[in-house]
Amino acid sequence: MTSKTLFNRMALIGVGLIGSSIARAAKLQGAVGSIVATARSPETRRRVAELGIADQVVESNAAAVEGADLVIVCIPVGACGPVAQEIGPYLAPGAIVSDVGSVKGSVVRDMSPHLPSNVHFVPAHPVAGTEYSGPDAGFAELFVNRWCILTPPEGTDPSATEKLAAFWSLLGANVETMSPEHHDLVLAVTSHLPHLIAYTIVGTADELQNVTRSEVLKFSAGGFRDFTRIAASDPTMWRDIFVANKDAVLEMLGRFNEDISALTRAIRNGDGNTLFEHFTRTRAIRRGIVQIGQDSPAPDFGRPHPGLPHTPLPKPYAADEG
Amino acid sequence: MTSKTLFNRMALIGVGLIGSSIARAAKLQGAVGSIVATARSPETRRRVAELGIADQVVESNAAAVEGADLVIVCIPVGACGPVAQEIGPYLAPGAIVSDVGSVKGSVVRDMSPHLPSNVHFVPAHPVAGTEYSGPDAGFAELFVNRWCILTPPEGTDPSATEKLAAFWSLLGANVETMSPEHHDLVLAVTSHLPHLIAYTIVGTADELQNVTRSEVLKFSAGGFRDFTRIAASDPTMWRDIFVANKDAVLEMLGRFNEDISALTRAIRNGDGNTLFEHFTRTRAIRRGIVQIGQDSPAPDFGRPHPGLPHTPLPKPYAADEG
């Protein structure tokens, strides 16, 4: 234990990309005294033990939460209700129970009824991730300079919310608090709609008769490949998100459809002015995101560019040329 | 001149991201004896001279092409016709005339009538770029491992096509030949539709009443920020592309709309199976793109992740802690 230690014992239920990143970051930062982890599949539990990112790996959710003063459920949102029901009776009095789900209204609705009144329920959503899944995909820096949104239900003890906020700050995140309803609307546009559109266009491109899959792959650097990254995200997680945040996603889809209809009409009419004005406006949004440090200013996301072929090698390597 | 020199004198008309990257790469590779460049705006001409990426900067298109055995027009596709008309009378007999436009049918239609029969017209499209524009944005490695598509009209001398292919190979590109019509269909799906969708969703997000722009920017790491990169591309270039490739873009938009309607219905009906199956299929496309080297396997496009706060610094830097 160090002076930074906020919790004696953290239980992680689910150790995928997010859970394993929390474990790594919390350990590095000395944020918790010890980490107990569990996962549904024996393979994941075995792998977590091999990786050494938890102090203890147990077989059941009930065993994981016993004696823990921080419990974080890191599983697809559709599974949160049943897991809350399972752990409810075993939670230590005064424990903080949290999650990392991308939808908050459904998580509050599904988990709250199963949690005893002597624990603090503070739902959370770290807005961070990659297109990879599983315990090997996590890394300690995942949350640095990303936002973590807390959505404590009305009546939550403010000191519990503050303690969880301190935990996420220690992991490098910026913390913001809002209502579950507002969270779900904001994330519908900044995350759920983009994923749905990416999943759609990647499917569209794969089903064409007059353009082959090989051509789609080869010429993907024209823009398409950017969409394939998020369309490679975990299918179970995303199925659950769209089912759980149906209303907000449908609302955003409706607005998107109106806007794409307007641009389609401009293309059909050869209305270059409308297109030019729209394309000029959207540049400003990118600049704003880069300015606040939520994306890199490096061209092309900083993707590596290999060197030119047969170019004379720089001094340090020239000897290798034989 | 080196043994690699393919052309004595290359004229570049337009020196933005693509033109300046060609200049840099051709010079580094010794692909051409000398480079003469011109641009419409005096600012760009001055900047190109300052950068030293051309051997000579001239004020008019006519002056640029005189005596050049390779002429590459690197301007928005909507301007290609008028420029062809301007340079036609000044082209050297036997010169190869090419371009870099993202639409090929319209370029062939607009340029061909103005080119004399004693030059070789070999339209080209290097499928490469970044979200930045202008002569400073270019770099010599831009085309390495990217595809360059040549669309020689029927009757083009095969040796001219081969010579231009050799030029692009020397710049690091893979070269493929196809008809202008097929090119425009392929690029409609791998580049034009993705850009249109990105431009749309970024506009949609910016016009919401119930979510602020500040929230959109802050929580953009949930997926939205990926779209803002290509929605920051040059507005003039993209206006011209959509006007020039209207038919193929409308065709692809129709298919995209059918597919998004099907997924919308699945969300509305809570049909998790349909969503899960779709999301599983699209993962394979990403893997294919990474396998053929058209994107990086690094998580999150290899975006940098800053270190954790207050973490002990590694040895080489520890002395700076003071």
Q: What quaternary form is this?
A: homodimer
Helix content of chain A: 40-55%
The CATH architecture name of the largest domain in chain A reads 3-Layer(aba) Sandwich
Class of secondary structure makeup of chain A = alpha/beta
Number of helices of chain A: 13
Element pattern of chain A in H and E:
EHEHEHEHEHEEEHEHHHHHHH
The neighbouring-strand order within the major sheet of chain A is 3-2-1-4-5-6
CATH class annotation of the largest domain in chain A: Alpha Beta
CATH topology of the largest domain in chain A: Rossmann fold
Shape of chain A: globular
CATH superfamily of the largest domain in chain A: NAD(P)-binding Rossmann-like Domain
- Percent of residues in beta strands of chain A: 5-15%
Largest interface: A-B, 124 and 125 residues
| Domain count of chain A | 2
Largest sheet of chain A, in brief, is: 6 strands, parallel
What low-confidence regions of chain A span 5 or more consecutive residues with pLDDT below 50?
A: 312-322
Q: Report how far the terminal alpha carbons of chain A are from each other.
A: 56 Å
Mean pLDDT over the full residue set of chain A: 94
Q: How many distinct beta strands of chain A? A: 9
Rounded to an integer in angstroms, the radius of gyration calculated over CA atoms of chain A is 23 Å
